[in-house]
Amino acid sequence: MALVTLKELLQDARKRKYAVGGYNVFNFETLGAVIEVAEELKTPLVIGIPERLFKFVDVDTLSAAMVRAALKSPMPIALHLDHGYTYEGMMKAIRWGFTSIMFDGSSLCFEENLKRTKDITRIAHSLGISVEGELGYVGCYGATKDINEENLVKPETALDFVEKTKIDALAIAVGTNHGAYHGSPKLNFSRLAELNNKVSVPLVLHGGSKLSKDDYQNSIRSGIAKINIATDTSLVAGETLKNELAQNQTANYVHLMSIVKKGVKNSIRKYMLSFDCISKAM
């Protein structure tokens, strides 16, 4: 199946009440793991790479592999730049052939976030590429104590942002945080439902790693159409590697790669089974 845009995937997810997983990958093993599980379970898929990863991996080679793998797969797949911050980073993703970019202006004042997101959307849409924007405070690395009512997105603000920027999806702050959790996140499902009723575009939940199945189900019922998984993929890969080395200290690298891929596949499968997306690609 040809590459599809984020807009196409998420409109269907919103209509049919499921969530597409947005999985960030960082090497060939994680890329293969995500696609193989999607094909096994027949799920639509968003595969992403965040701009912050550019300095750690050969992104030109990895992005080419992402495009090739997506084109070979029978599943509908959107390739996504996650958390793009710079014009240069977003232009790279466009040149690679990605079908979606996210501009993360959530740390900016509302006016500047709106202005930059609107400019990026105008360029992307002229090329047939979807855009995800972000509003509100999604904390980082266990900072759940920083998340309060004032950080959550207000429905009127979201409506204004969506109408003026013309984005295709909106990531919203409703109580999650990026990175590993210390303590339990408290999602505000009533605010999420208000946002879903107010805006016309699908909503995205960032900080999706390690939530409960009930959290995922309630999020989907309240309007979430895409759930991002990034941190847990990296953590699972690391834990799988450490566990295998503890049991088999003479293991060669090829064996370790296959073991890590298997561990990541098991993790991804659990998420997909919680998102109500199984067989939605049929």
From TrEMBL:
GO cellular component, one term: cytosol
InterPro entries assigned: Aldolase_TIM (IPR013785), Class_II_FBP_aldolase (IPR050246), FBA_II (IPR000771)
Record-listed dihydroxyacetone phosphate binding positions: 179, 207-209, 228-231
Residues the record marks as active site: 82
Residues annotated to bind Zn(2+) 1: 83, 178, 206
Manner of cofactor binding, per the entry note: Binds 2 Zn(2+) ions per subunit. One is catalytic and the other provides a structural contribution.
GO biological process entries: carbohydrate metabolic process
EC numbers: 4.1.2.13
Required cofactor(s): Zn(2+)
Keywords noted in UniProt: Lyase, Metal-binding, Zinc
Binding site for Zn(2+) 2: 104, 134
Entry keyword NADP: no
GO molecular function, one term: tagatose-bisphosphate aldolase activity
Listed name of the protein: Putative fructose-bisphosphate aldolase
Annotated source species: Methylomusa anaerophila
Gene field: fbaA
